[in-house]
UniProtKB/TrEMBL annotation:
Keyword set, alphabetical order: Methyltransferase, Transferase
UniProt protein name: Demethylmenaquinone methyltransferase / 2-methoxy-6-polyprenyl-1,4-benzoquinol methylase
SUPFAM superfamilies given in the database record: S-adenosyl-L-methionine-dependent methyltransferases (SSF53335)
InterPro entries found in the cross-reference section: Methyltransf_11, SAM-dependent_MTases_sf
Organismal lineage: Bacteria, Pseudomonadati, Thermodesulfobacteriota, Desulfobacteria, Desulfobacterales
Species whose genome carries this gene: Desulfobacula phenolica
Length: 204
């Protein structure tokens, strides 16, 4: 399967699962609340060093599992941008989290209609393996970070567990989390633009 076809198949896969995504992966069967991994997610969000007035980008946001955790860190002056290329994920996210402080953007990571040097923090949670060109995506995200901004790639599963999980779904069977050293980040003006790029795998 060529790259364009694989990308289209992947997008269809996520669109078809949007309505049940939060329930399937994050709903606690005992409480009925989407806080199944709340302790682990809180660890991830704490690593972002979010200040009340920050501008935060949630890339590959899906139906919005991180929204309540990020908003709890932001004041009325803070802003959260929820980005996903699957239209149905954005629709579902907006339906559940239609708050004034959130801007919803349906876009591929390589085509983000966002200004350079405009975000204090960027989080890629449980989505990085699905990027078509991971190194190019890092470069794109680095460009829209403010100087000394923080980019975090985070997962609840190890690289091996992610690979095993994806093997069961043909649309994402090739999607992998790369070895850490393969994701070295360099902004075009990196000497003047230091970037903190953190890769987290929260297992416990």
């Amino acid at each position: 399967m060529d790259t364009d076809m694989q990308d289209m198949t992947r997008k269809t896969f996520f669109n078809e699962k949007a309505d049940t995504w939060l329930d399937k992966f994050y709903k606690d069967p005992e409480t009925g609340i989407h806080d199944r991994h709340s302790k682990k997610i809180k660890k991830i969000i704490s690593s972002l060093n979010i200040e009340p007035d920050h501008k935060v980008l949630d890339v590959g946001c899906g139906s919005g599992v991180l929204v309540p955790y990020i908003l709890s860190r932001l004041s009325s002056k803070g802003r959260l941008f929820e980005v996903d290329y699957a239209e149905n994920m954005i629709t579902q996210n907006r339906k559940v989290h239609g708050y004034d402080r959130i801007t919803f953007v349906c876009s591929d990571v390589m085509d983000l209609p966002l200004e350079d040097s405009s975000f204090d923090s960027i989080i890629c949670f449980a989505c990085f393996p699905h990027f078509r060109d991971q190194k190019a995506a890092l470069g794109k995200l680095a460009g829209i970070l403010k100087p000394n901004g923080i980019l975090t790639i985070a997962h609840l599963l190890s690289a091996k567990e992610i690979a095993d999980h994806h093997d069961g779904e043909s649309a994402v069977s090739r999607d992998r989390l790369p070895v850490k050293h393969e994701t070295a980040l360099r902004h075009p003006d990196h000497e003047q633009f230091p970037i903190a790029c953190t890769i987290l795998i929260i297992l416990n």
